[in-house]
Design a protein that fits this description.
5-stranded parallel β-sheet, about 240 residues, elongated, binds ligand JEB, two-stranded antiparallel sheet, single chain, alpha/beta
Length: about 240
């Protein structure tokens, strides 16, 4: 997968080159290219924003600079354009799973009050464009959202995670939150690891883990339970 990120703060994307993702990039599993939007400005001030039509607080990012940058970055290679925005469709694990099979993702990181809407409209006329949000809170720009989304997608790519089963069994993979996890020592500050996890009875362990996942989901995210398909819960599951 090739990933392009256009931003006025390229340094914000430096964490992509650390740790697990950094190793995946170094191994050639992912091709990540970060572009400075200001490289496409033509004025001495390298202006990328202007006052909003209709008035209102803050500034809006100008369409001309974005158009020249995206035309260059996109070239003729097909891609999906992703525009982070607080007004976007929620980004979820299902989104990450859908995007992991894309050959190329291009992320447009806005700042100020966002990017002139005509940029989205222009590129949506010729390619898939998604305006997405990583959560119901307001950030200062799109860069942090891109870090979140790139990590969520990249970890699903073959070879990126040491243990591919991690991606298959993590939270949301079966529509439920993950239950609690434990490791050594057996007793820590008087708190003991649940005996079932040390029993070697894999059936009982699987049942215990599902019960804990159901309990946690019912308590913290009842919306996820309600969204499960009819046949996802058996009679015993419904006791929670
Ligand atoms: N994804 C995502 C986001 C963002 C987000 C993403 C891109 C931009 C570009 C500018 N801002 C600031 C801004 C402030 C107020 C109104 N509109 C925009 C962004 C916020 N905020 N919260 C999320 N979940």
């Amino acid at each position: 997968m090739r990933i392009d990120v256009v931003t006025i703060f390229p340094g914000y994307l430096a964490p992509l080159r650390e740790a697990l993702l950094g190793r995946a990039i170094a191994a050639g599993l992912i091709d990540v290219r970060v572009h400075n939007l200001r490289d496409w400005t033509r004025d001495v001030h390298q202006a990328v924003d202007d006052a909003p039509y209709g008035g209102g607080p803050g500034m809006v990012m100008r369409p001309q600079v974005w158009g020249e940058a995206l035309d260059d970055v996109l070239g003729d290679e097909p891609a999906r354009l992703i525009v982070p925005t607080p007004a976007g469709v929620p980004f979820t694990q299902a989104t990450a799973r859908r995007w992991k099979d894309e050959p190329r993702l291009v992320f447009a990181c806005g700042r100020y009050e966002g990017i002139d809407q005509r940029v989205v409209d222009e590129y949506a006329s010729r390619m898939p464009v998604e305006e997405v949000s990583i959560g119901d809170y307001v950030l200062v720009g799109g860069e942090v959202a891109v870090l979140v989304m790139v990590e969520a997608v990249a970890r699903l790519l073959p070879g990126v995670l040491g243990n591919p089963q991690s991606a298959e069994q993590d939270s949301f993979s079966d529509g439920l939150l993950e239950g609690p996890a434990y490791t050594r020592p057996v007793v820590w500050r008087g708190r003991e690891v649940p005996a079932v996890l040390r029993s070697g009875d894999h059936g009982a362990i699987a049942r215990w883990r599902r019960d804990r996942a159901l309990e946690r989901t019912a308590k913290r995210r009842p919306d996820l339970l309600a969204a499960l398909p009819e046949d996802a819960l058996d009679q015993r599951d419904r006791e929670f």
